[in-house]
Every structure is written in structure tokens, then in C-alpha cells.
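In the laboratory, one determines a bound structure by crystallizing the protein with its ligand and collecting diffraction data. In a computational setting the workflow is compressed into a single prediction: the sequence and the ligand go in, and a structural description comes out. We illustrate the idea with zinc ion.
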Amino acid sequence: MPDPATLARLSEAVDANFDRQVAFLAELVRFPSRRGSEAPLQDWLARAFRERGYAVDRFTLADVPLEAHPKASPMVDADPARAVQVVAAHRAQAQAGRSLILQGHIDVVPEGPPAMWTYPPYAAVIRDGWMYGRGAHDMKAGVACMVFAMDAIRTAGFAPAADVYLQTVTEEESTGNGALATLLRGYRADAALIPEPTGHAITRAHTGTLWFRLKVRGVPVHVAVAQDGSNAILSAMHLVHALFAHTRMLNEAAKAHPWYAEVPQPIKFNPGIIRGGDWASSTPAWCEVDCRIGLLPGTEVADAMAGVQRAVQEAAARDAFLANNPPHLLWHGFQADGYVLEPGSEAEAVLAAAHAQVHGGAMPERLSTAVNDTRFYGLYFGIPALCYGPKGEGAHGVDERTSIADLRRCTLTIAAFIADWCGLRPRAA
Ligand SMILES: [Zn+2]
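The predicted complex, in C-alpha cell form:
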């Protein structure tokens, strides 16, 4: 870990830049960077990186051979050519320390009904030490931390003694293809840190995720003779109930999992979007439900998909109409593995030391029941990937918010981590 004098210099530098950091985060939050609309923010970030002197690579998912990679997920509802990724490189004069990737996603999930929010979801209002807004917590705060950790090193008069890549990606909330694209573009390092908002805990493991769309047909008739038709919305409900039963069975089996045994119901199933029907007095001719289900580390994606398929088929076979009009499953979005950060890596030890130096005490660990982008580094490219970041509340909900005080602490922790992992040298004037 950095010596106390260096840590003090970094701490002063974080403080000196902090007003600018909060303004930077507010600027990020003001971009409604939902899926398909991330480009303006990515362009803004590319400019911010260029102003700091980084070599900036701006590319889209259409620029890399995504389809050729077995772990790319299908994108049905999004255009790869519009999904902009940004990599800003600090290239060390002479490589002395260990290189590092700092990565954050800037895509956010939809904000839901604005009337449910205390403050408008893209206004970045600050009250009582919290900044409110969609993405403030998940994970634009982490992006601000990694950018300003590097700024603090510069302000303190140092430069990392190894290459550092600052990467802002999209698609974390839907496929993970943004993170994969940076790897397919050729970026590599000795470790990766993804400052998702973990409340200063290291993510020991995360579950995988599958997305699929259930498509069901009905027979439209006047509701006066509903018995002659078939209601697609009710058929979809039948299948949703069957998928909850399937999930209960998976959670029973999870009680024997080496990492998730103690986590109650680690596999979450969620019907998240429903569309269907055309008229209140007609039996619906169609219904579509977009669903998400988790899988545990160690379960093959193909096996989890087959399990869903089987549950749907068996439920359809039990239904007089669906037995002859089988539902269709469209696989789109996440086909993500779970991932375990095996204890004992040097990268984790260095982060734990930085955490202890800034926070005092051991770095806590957490088991996540949702996915993050570390799997691409850890599972497919042999790069130890740490998921650790600031503190907030309300991810994917209303009144999402990030703690300003924790933003500062996390920035210093990441700066201390970079100092030790990459090494520091005096910055050339
Ligand atoms: Zn996130």
C-alpha cells in the first residue's frame, strides 16, 4: 500500500478536486443514457478524457467481431452500430508496475413513472448528502470515482507507472456486450476493477442472468362467447406461474451450492414487461412477456436455458389450448454466466490493503444475486476482476441515490489501489 505521506497527498488531491467531481457526476446523471441513447454521454466522456490528455478510442459494437464470440449475447431490440464504447488510455513511459483496467457502465435502466420520484430522475438534485437520479448509484458514481482517482494521482504530482485504461461501456444492463467489446478490441491488463456500487464490499460472486421473451397466441372472439376463444393473457399467466415453480425448484437445489447455500432464494425470476391484447371486450389474440431468470456460478448457460424450455413445454402440455398451440420462446439479451472471484488473488489483496488504509478494518465481501461485467475478464480472458465501489440505494427503483461522503472515500480507495498496483512515479512537468 502507499506510504502514509503518499496517501495524505492523494487524500488532499481528492479533496481539492471534489467539487469538480460532484459536478462531473451531476453532469453524467443529467444524460438519460438508457439503452440505445448512450451515445451523447459517451461522446461527452470521450471529450472529457481527451481534455485530460488520454489517448481516446471511441468505437461501437458494430466495429468488433462480437458475433464470433461464444459469450456475446443476442441483441434483438438494440442496434450495435449505435452502442458507443469509449476507452481512454494512460500509457506509461516505461512499464514498471502492473497494468490496470478501470471500467464502468454508463447505460441506465428506465426510470419508471416520474411522478413516483421525489426529485426528477435526471436532475441530479443533492439533498442531505445524497445525489438523486437514475444511474447516480448504478453506476455513474463509480465512473466518477475511477476518473477522479486518476485525476487525484495527477493532482498529487504523480503518474501511474503502468498502463491504465479507463473504459466506459454500454449494455451492462442488457447483455454485457459492451465489456466484451473492449476485450475483442484488444484491451488487456493485469487486473480489472469495476466500481459498481457495492457499498465498499468486494463482490465474491455474482449470479448469471438469462433474458427471454414468452410469446403466446390466443383465439380472439367477442367476450360474449369467451368459451369459444382463448385468452392469450391468461395463457401467459399460466406459463409465468410455471416458471415461478421452476425457480422454487432451482432455489431448493441452491441450498447445496458452495457459495450460495446461505443466501435465501438466490435465483430470482422476474416477468418484467408485458404486452398483449387489443380490446377489453375481445379475448386477447396475443401476449408477450419479457422475463429474467438467474443462474448460479457453475451452471452452464445452455443447461439453464434448457431448464426454462422444459418448464414452459411441460406447462404448455398441461393446458388444452397451449398443448396444440405451443408458446414461442425468443432468447434475446443476457446469456450470462455466474462468476466467482476466487479468494487469494494479488489484486484482491492490494485492494483490501487500500480499503483498510482508507476505511480502517477488513474489506467486507458480498454475494450478489445479480450480474455484473467482471465475468468477461475473470472467466474468459484470465484477468482477475474486482467488483468494488461506492455506496448508494435504490438501484432500478425510484429515488435512486448515491452518498456524497462515500463517493469521496471510494475515490481515495481507488487512488490508493492504483498507487500500489501500478506504482507511481513523479509526473513529468
Ligand atoms: Zn450496475
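The two ends are 25 Å apart (CA to CA). Keep in mind that any predicted model is a hypothesis to be tested, not a measurement.
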